[in-house]
Write a structure and sequence with these properties.
The protein contains one helix and ten strands, in the order βββββαβββββ. The protein is mainly beta.
Length: 170
């Protein structure tokens, strides 16, 4: 994975009226495939929890605590594919296991193939965009509060988006 041209981001509803977006500044990823259509691809990603960035230092520190990611005891989020299913010309479903705070759950993400190019240095690059969602409560990210009218401060659903540019290793 080319970290300069890839990102793992998330969105969560705040006070049920807007989204807060975050990213993990330090992440790695690998894809191994022999099939030209990627159907045999083995894909893995991880993100360093300490690198969470929502553009608000106080919120980022809170996310690193035991009320959310518990970075001291669970320094990484991980994903490992179990299947990469082709569903259309450029569309796939990525099946796999995501682990957050030591809790592993199976998820599916929609994936779109964005193309392949040879860069100015002769390297082959492939792009994918993936989207999915998890319920944060299932992973122990249990912090919650309500506002005056009883609405939740944070939604339980967290949307995940991964934009990745892979470089073929020779």
């Amino acid at each position: 994975m080319d970290p300069a041209h890839s990102e793992i981001t998330f969105k969560v509803r705040h006070m049920m009226i807007t989204n807060v977006t975050g990213t993990f500044e330090h992440s790695t990823g690998m894809m191994h495939t022999d099939a030209p259509d990627f159907t045999d691809a083995e894909i893995s990603f991880d993100a360093e929890v300490q690198s969470v960035n929502t553009r608000n230092a106080q919120r980022d520190e809170h996310l690193r605590t035991n009320e959310f990611f518990d970075a001291a005891n669970h320094p990484k989020l991980t994903f490992a594919s179990t299947r990469f299913e082709k569903t259309g010309d450029k569309d796939y479903v990525l099946h796999g296991d995501i682990t957050i705070r030591g809790v592993k759950k199976s998820i599916q993400m929609a994936a779109q193939y964005r193309g392949m190019v040879v860069d100015p240095w002769g390297l082959i690059r492939v792009g994918f965009e993936m989207q999915g969602a998890v319920n944060r409560m299932e992973f122990g990210l249990q912090w919650q509060n309500t506002i005056e009218d009883g609405a939740l401060v944070l939604s339980e659903e967290v949307k995940i988006q991964i934009n990745v540019q892979m470089i073929k290793q020779v």
